[in-house]
Amino acid sequence: MSGVARPTAALPRGPLRLALPRGALLEETLDILDQVGADTAEIRGDSRSLIFDAGDFVFVTMRPSDVPTYVEAGAADVGITGKDVLMEQSDRVFYEISDLGYGGCRMVLAGPDGEDRLAEQERRLGALRIATKYPRIAERYFEDTGRAAEVIEVKGSVELAPVSGLADAIVDLVDTGRTLADNGLVIREEIASSTARLIANRVAHKLRAREIDDLVRRLREVTA
Amino acid sequence: MTHPIPPGTRDILPDELRELRMLQARLAGVFESFGYGEVATPTVEYDEVLARANAGTAAAYRFFDERGQLLAVRSDLTVPIARLVANRFAAADPPLRFFYNARAYRAVRPQRGQAGEFFQAGIELVGSPAPEGTVEVLEVLSAALDAAGLGRAVIGLGDAALYRQLLEELGVAEDVSSRLLELLAAHDHVGLDRAIGELVHGDAQKELLMRVPMLRGGPEVLDEARELGGEAMSRALERLSGTYEAAAERGIADRLQLDLGLLRDLGYYTGAILEVYDPALGHVLGGGGRYDELMGRFGRSQPAVGFALFLERLHIAQAEEERIAEEGTGA
What we know:
The structure holds 2 protein chains of 2 kinds.
Chain A: E1 4-5, E2 16-21, H1 26-35, H2 41-44, E3 51-54, E4 57-62, H3 67-73, E5 78-82, H4 83-88, E6 95-99, E7 105-112, H5 118-125, E8 128-132, H6 135-144, E9 149-153, H7 160-164, E10 169-174, H8 178-182, E11 185-194, E12 196-200, H9 202-207, H10 209-223
Parallel strand pairs in A: 2-4, 2-5, 8-9, 8-10
Antiparallel strand pairs in A: 3-4, 5-12, 6-12, 7-10, 7-11
Chain B: H1 14-33, E1 37-38, E2 44-46, H2 47-51, E3 62-64, E4 70-73, H3 78-88, E5 96-105, E6 114-115, E7 117-126, H4 132-147, E8 154-159, H5 162-169, H6 174-185, H7 189-199, H8 203-211, E9 216-217, H9 220-249, E10 256-259, E11 272-277, E12 286-290, E13 304-310, H10 311-327
Parallel strand pairs in B: 1-5, 8-10
Antiparallel strand pairs in B: 2-4, 3-4, 5-7, 7-13, 8-11, 9-10, 11-12, 12-13
Helix pairs in contact in B: 1-4, 4-9, 5-6, 5-9, 6-7
């Protein structure tokens, strides 16, 4: 078991606080929230605010990878983010309560186009060099498949790594695969698939059970 | 220049420590009033002794003493007290009642604001079976929360064996059961639903197993569960409903939330399990439950039950509740 989290955030009363992912998932997230009757007009506008009062909810917007942090601490009661983010932060504690179905993409191992030289590379050099923004997913994957890999964490365009010689291959999230192809990379193995998920804080899941279950029910109706 | 201290540790200064001590004293007063006596055990024990509990909680710090013996720092007080009971009270007539106000230690992850060293306040009731023993502990816990100024705190009450029993009643294969229990303990309801959909036969059974983890609330939850699952569910529910009814007789049912999906990760819980929540805080304040097999691992088999509260969290919740009351926004 891990250390005891030092809590900093109070769980306020009033409307349910919902952490929303800025970026690729936001548009579809707002569309389904519209369908369950939430007011997303303000958040769709060009306001620089990060927090929005929307009647039944307070929306808190952030980077997708921050959603588990806010929800675990109770700074948001519930949150929406991709399964890829949850897998990368699998040591955080929260309830994963609903698969919202949209935002589908795949976590893959990709290498340079042409002959697949990854196995040879591992055999001759002892380990594969893997560049990724998802070091924990990558490490676990190579461990599970019994292979040696040196995982290199990068923050920006990961496609650059094999092209420039930083790594032999990459582990990354792909949607259409366009970016891979443009950089001379092809998918070698599929690691997992990902969709948007609804998660809940441990305390909120209990003390605001009715509101959360109601939200889940309404979301299921519109995403089914 | 400043001198670093290890990650997860901290210094406590007079203003905070004064308040923590006051809180400890109030809790001690409650525990004493129910007939519990304070014990202190060593911070370090032999690793193999703590490991007997098989609690799945690896010690955060282990080291060798001057004779080369492997020592471990305790990660809770329940296991050391089980050891103490076996050593010092082997022939004593049950029930035994102990409480503690002590520090425990767990591993921390960097940059997560986690405490590796923290105060726990709790009780252990040894030799008193369910439901009487469980209800006594719930009563003490409720009084302790009131004494801490957390009148709004809620105790989640579940049963560690309920879901497993239900899977058995439904004839689900052993390997599938353990997979489903793992997912439930990880709070991964999406993964659980998917695994049930793929691995369990029969639509009614699937529906039942998917719905049960979501059932939490007042006594109506028991009726809902029975409606869902008929005979199998009724048998699995027996212990939990017995405990709830006994708690109702003592007048503490109001602050209980029945939670059929509650599963804590510590390996030694056997029956009732509990978690403590306060609306002012996003973190669980503490927990506990029955561990009727733990004492047996140290020699003398006896039913036992207890809880531990994280003192620093209690303190933060207390301050937060005070603030909310002053602002007059808490309703």
